[in-house]
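pinned: reference chain
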Amino acid sequence: MISYIIRRLLFMLPTLVGIVTITFIIIQFVPGGPVDQMKSMLRGHTGTLTEAGGSAMSQQGIKAQELDPRYLEELKKIYHLDLPLWERYLRTFLWYSPKNPDGPNDFFNRDNWEGFLLFKFGDSFYRNKSVLELIVEKLPVSASLGIISFFMTYIICILLGIAKAVKNGTPFDTSTSLLVLVGYSTPGFVLGIFLIVFLGPGEGAVMHLIPLANLTSAGTPGYEDWSFWQKLTDYLHHLAAPLVCFMIGSFATLTMLTKNAVIEEMHKQYVITARAKGLPEKTVLFKHILKNALIPLVTGFPIGFLAMFFTGSLLIEQIFTLDGLGLLSYQAVIQRDYPIVLGTLFIFSLLALVGQLLTDISYVIIDRRITFEESQG
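pinned: its structure tokens
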């Protein structure tokens, strides 16, 4: 196992380099870079930049006088676009950049190095903050949706899947399958729009059950004097609607996987033997069947646990005015904020690779019949 883990860890580095390299190459050919957008802003264009990268210039903007070339050079220097392409590429991963070029510098001082391999992702072009600061700032919204939806989905789906397996073919099984499939086929943003129209804060809503925005009512008069339980209730009130929209399509796969796994185990020889010995049905189900049926679900837990902290949905965050990682990533792509685009991609890719490794290890820990040697052979 140790040799397998070492090989997987060594394989992560070229994988990360490949992912970031492909993205780096793509963004070099995408029109409407940061310099073009800043030029448009300095000229006073009232049009907005389109998703394709072009600018919706007004006739007044088209006729505007060109900016001083010195200003353009300053813009390129600010965004490090004055450097050769190969140097910008190397700076993305690892680069020696002494703080005081004229004085003595310690080559082994971490402060004199930059790059993603040292988890230094640089600063945003437009937000005057580092990429890590922005992720930490937006993380509570995405983590709230991810953590709660993750555990609720697992608990509900496992219990529902077990119940459906025990009552397979009954009206309960048929009706719950219909509900689960309807939820699976309903896009979360469509349900979000429906809830906003009928239950939202707008004047045309039938009932006003959904609050205005954000995850709390912070900023409203008297909020600081609320008790802990009042703040917790307010937090759950703000979280309820986006959480429902976020979870609506997550039940089908896990529920049906649990049901099918339990049914498959029910027909195996060891279960028939346990029943023949006179064991109660509950003991057979919870002590023997679930122990083996839940292996596929438990082994998927590590990668899901890591991903839940960075779960983000652009449309749902936009509908309910939540400033999370989904909206941050989208705005970074539209604004060509390259440090955020590449930095978040690097972090998410690293977490995915680590989560997949933990999933493979959990297979061996949970099911002793599986070994890395056999799988490789």
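why pinned: Strands lie at 95-96, 113-114. Residues 46-65 have pLDDT under 50 and may be disordered.
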